[in-house]
Amino acid sequence: MKKFNTSPISGMQELLPNLQAEFNHLKTGIAEAFYRHGFQNIETPTIERTEVLLAKAGGDTEKQIYKVVKTAETASDADQALRFDHTVPLARYVVEHMNDLTFPFKVTQIGRNFRGERAQKGRFREFYQCDVDVIGWQKLPIAYDAEVIATLIDALQILPLDKYQVRVSNRKLLAGLLEELDLSTQSTEIFDIVDHAEKVPEEATIQALAQLQISPDTVVKITTFTKINGPCKEAIAKLKALNFTNATFNDGVRELEQVLSALEHKNNGKVAIIADMLIVRGLDYYTGTVFETIAPSYREIGSVCSGGRYENLAQNYTDQPLPGVGGSIGLTRLFYVLREHNLIQASLSKPIDICLIPITENEFPTAEELAAKLRKHNYNIDIFLADKKLSDKIKYADKTAQNIIIVGESEVQSGNFQIKNLATGEQKALTL
Amino acid sequence: MKKFNTSPISGMQELLPNLQAEFNHLKTGIAEAFYRHGFQNIETPTIERTEVLLAKAGGDTEKQIYKVVKTAETASDADQALRFDHTVPLARYVVEHMNDLTFPFKVTQIGRNFRGERAQKGRFREFYQCDVDVIGWQKLPIAYDAEVIATLIDALQILPLDKYQVRVSNRKLLAGLLEELDLSTQSTEIFDIVDHAEKVPEEATIQALAQLQISPDTVVKITTFTKINGPCKEAIAKLKALNFTNATFNDGVRELEQVLSALEHKNNGKVAIIADMLIVRGLDYYTGTVFETIAPSYREIGSVCSGGRYENLAQNYTDQPLPGVGGSIGLTRLFYVLREHNLIQASLSKPIDICLIPITENEFPTAEELAAKLRKHNYNIDIFLADKKLSDKIKYADKTAQNIIIVGESEVQSGNFQIKNLATGEQKALTL
Q1: What Å distances lie between residue B68 and A4, A71, A141, B86, CA to CA?
Q2: Which of B84, B53, B62, B308 is nearest to B191 (CA)?
Q3: How far apart are alpha carbons B20 and B248 in whole angstroms?
Q4: How far apart are CA A123 and CA B73, in angstroms?
Q5: Strand B352-358 to B324-329 pairing
Q6: Residue A6 carries which DSSP code?
Q7: What integer pLDDT is reported at residue B301 of this predicted model?
Q8: How many CB pairs under 8 A join A and B?
Q9: How far apart are alpha carbons A161 and A156 in whole angstroms?
């Protein structure tokens, strides 16, 4: 009989071992792809000073932040809270360790972040994010924008999704267009409308723009622009055909072309990469390149990774200009939707390679000897050490392991063993 | 100029990338050893209901617990706090998922725990613990006590320490001795005195026992017992020679002998394993086997891992008996003391295998091609993409990578490259 509510707090992922193994497989695969691309790992503390976390944030973030109550021992410390993303702690980290870091600083963070969101299916209050960022000293070449995207594309190969489409744009394009149209004062609202344009019928977008007192002609100019998408050459030609003289806009065209053509070299046709002017990313934090990735066969999953270029990582903490570009995979949410789509099969991911079943205690030493040898080849080996019926021992192996080896008196004497695959029933001989 | 205090909160580990790579190397190595021994990984949430965390704890733990302030969205939830160890969440997990787990449940948890301790050199408020536990259903054979110790011994091989000594005892021995001496009512105090005996002169121990109104004769019996230590056969012989008839004591002798002789098979002389009656472990949570491990060349490091047998993992949450045995490596503290002893060399752990240096942008495509090929062999490859003087590019490689390949016009044309080891200066030829 339970004496307590033992369920995890709502909004916190908790997995059975086989599913945890599958989650770890994805997390490790993503980390390895990041490392292969030369990103270095750092870990910042889970707890930060509240003033550091909220230096910029405000709004929703402030409402969702988990504050931490100080203990008797830490009473004199400043107000503290749990980090809600990796970007704010990264900014603090880079400023703190500036003199000890090598720039461009290619950094990856993979860890748990916290937001006190309303409990809701598929929404997590504790969630893993897998981030890559490149931080420049004073300036950072646009070539790194493409490198961040290429790195994330490589990392996505570990996921059980067949195809991806990376949609790239540059915030300077819409910003430049609005300068050209003399609408810069309304840019926050217009960026927001374009950001939501995909989720609503076209009329709703037109109406929303009209409500900002934008003339029908100008609305057409904006929607004509936002409909531009397609492969590099085609999209760049369309953007150039608009014949805008605005410098910001033309910077955007040049940067977008550089990113897309660099990606052609790096990507080798692995995934579809297109320009798409509907991508603006909600955050006003981004200043140049922006991107989102979808899996076309599972559009309802939404963005599997996204990111962009920011002009100044740490402007709230230092006067030193630190331009950067980064992207993130929200692994906990993604794992949840992959499971919802039956794309994760826990049954395939039994983490034990071989379970050794000694018939009696007399076979323990031989089983240990065999296990030690197999472990040297990096196999994960379990030995069943409890006194149970053979059928119960086999049941245990069947639930936890991929293969079984029964170690009885005759095996001990002969030094010959049979390894049996528990999924296929296939047997192979093995000697000590 | 800094606008904020950007240092991490006191008591929280934050490492530069090269040291982080070294920390990760140890953490991964420990996890892999646990997996090789058939332990399955789980992760429980960082945040738990306070009533679950404090169901047993009390005392110091309650004072050091980090409570979490609910947000507007989570206002209706129960009181919450950060976990302070892995054992309490494991108990909740096992009760919650009892019907879906396979017993004996061999489980490992590696993650961050939180205690609001007083800020002090080498004391951490956020710290990694690497735990292994085996949980039985109703009962659990003593063979698993040896398996937990053997697993931890294998895991310790990744640390830069040359020798270990595992000191094993069984709490039933001292408990049985106190029954025999009619001192059971004072057992908490006496266990505590024995637990501290090593840290004080012998007279202090004798005096502390005398203060409990224990007669000098009886004090001698206790100290004679606590001085017993040595290899299995020798120590067991000495314990048997005491000729106690008490059943608990003799259970302890039998169990200790089983654990030590099983370890002789598993360990193959890799580390010194001795019985030592001074080991009782402070926690009254333990009921049988107890162990601590030291590195004899660095005694001041203290225990590098420890653990023991507990009769009932989850008695606060369920009536179901769940005996277990487990142990833990406190990695954050250990990493700190290893650094203090200069046993961790960050300079050796540059996480990038090869840094490619294109001379100009013209060489980017060839560098990308070479990088893609090397990444297929699981090398961590960085490409320097910024426009800097060659000497600055080489300086960057020297700080972050183990090897360098310069990609210039002639290399592009010939397809022949020189890979240079940045530590030794050694060069090797390489072709696309």
Answers
A1: 20, 11, 42, 18
A2: B308
A3: 47
A4: 12
A5: unpaired
A6: -
A7: 85
A8: 307
A9: 8
Q: Are A133 and A120 in contact (CB under 8 A)?
A: no
Those of residues 277-296 in A touching chain B at CB distance below 8 A are none
A298 part of contact set with chain B, CB < 8 Å: no
What would the 3-class secondary structure string for chain B be?
Answer: CECCCCCCCCCECCCCHHHHHHHHHHHHHHHHHHHHCCCEECCCCCEEEHHHHCCCCCHHHHHHCCEEECCHHHCCCCCEEECCCCHHHHHHHHHHHHHHCCCCEEEEEEEEEECCCCCCCCCCCEEEEEEEEEECECECCCHHHHHHHHHHHHHHCCCCCCCCEEEEEEHHHHHHHHHHCCCHHHHHHHHHHHHHHHHCCHHHHHHHHHCCCCCHHHHHHHHHHHCCEECHHHHHHHHHHCCCCCHHHHHHHHHHHHHHHHHHHHHCCCCEEEEECCCCCCCCCCCCEEEEEECHHHHHHCCCEEEEEECCCCCCCECCCCCEEEEEECHHHHHHHHHHCCCCCHHHCCCEEEEEEECCHHHHHHHHHHHHHHHHCCCCEEECCCCCCHHHHHHHHHHHEEEEEEECHHHHHHCEEEEEECCCCCEEEEEC
Residue B164 backbone phi and psi in degrees, to 5: -130, 155
Q: What is the pLDDT of residues B120-150, one digit of tens each?
A: 888 899 999 999 999 999 999 999 999 999 9
Q: Supply the DSSP symbol for A425.
A: -
The alpha carbon of B165 is separated from its chain's Cα centroid by a whole number of angstroms, namely: 16
Burial class (CB in 10 A: 0-12, 13-18, 19+), A300: exposed
**Dihedral sign of CA atoms A79, A81, A87, A92 in order:** positive
**CA gap A338, A382 in Å, rounded:** 30
Q: Please report, rounded to a whole number, the percentage of residues in chain A having pLDDT higher than 70.
A: 97
Residue B429 structure tokens: 């030829």
Joined together, the tokens standing for residue A366 give 């031989």
Residue in A12, A94, A102, A369 to test binding to B, most B beta-carbons within 10 Å: A102
Residue labelled with tokens 């490392």: A35
pTM summary value? 0.95
B343-364 pLDDT, tens digit per residue, is: 998 766 678 999 999 999 999 9
Is some CB atom of chain B closer than 8 A to the CB atom of A47? Answer: yes
Task: Give the Å distances, CA to CA, from B354 to B20, B380, B392, B405, B413.
Answer: 18, 7, 16, 7, 21
pLDDT band for position A287 (50/70/90)?
Answer: very high
Nearest to B265 by CA among B139, B164, B149: B149
ipTM over 0.90: yes
- C-alpha B174/C-alpha B308 separation (Å) is 15
**Structure token pair of residue A19:** 């599913």
- Test B40 with A101 for CB contact under 8 angstroms: no
Lowest mean pLDDT across A180-189, A360-369, B236-245, B310-319: B310-319
Contacts of A160 (CB under 8 A, 6+ apart): A338, A343, A344
The alpha carbon dihedral of B277, B281, B287, B290 has a sign of negative
**Shortest CA gap A247–chain B (Å):** 23
Does A20 contact B38 at a Cβ distance shorter than 8 Å?
Answer: no
Angle between helices B247-267 and B232-241 (to 10 degrees): 170
Tokens representing A228?
């531009």
Which has the closest alpha carbon to B327: B104, B85, B138?
Answer: B85
Above 60 in pLDDT, residue A359?
A: yes
Calculate the alpha carbon distances from B394 to B36, B45, B227, B397 in Å.
Answer: 40, 44, 61, 5
Alpha carbon separation from A342 to A246, A302, A303, B110 (Å, rounded): 49, 16, 18, 28
Q: How many CB atoms lie within 10 A of CB A88?
A: 24
**B386 in contact with A at a CB cutoff of 8 Å?**
yes
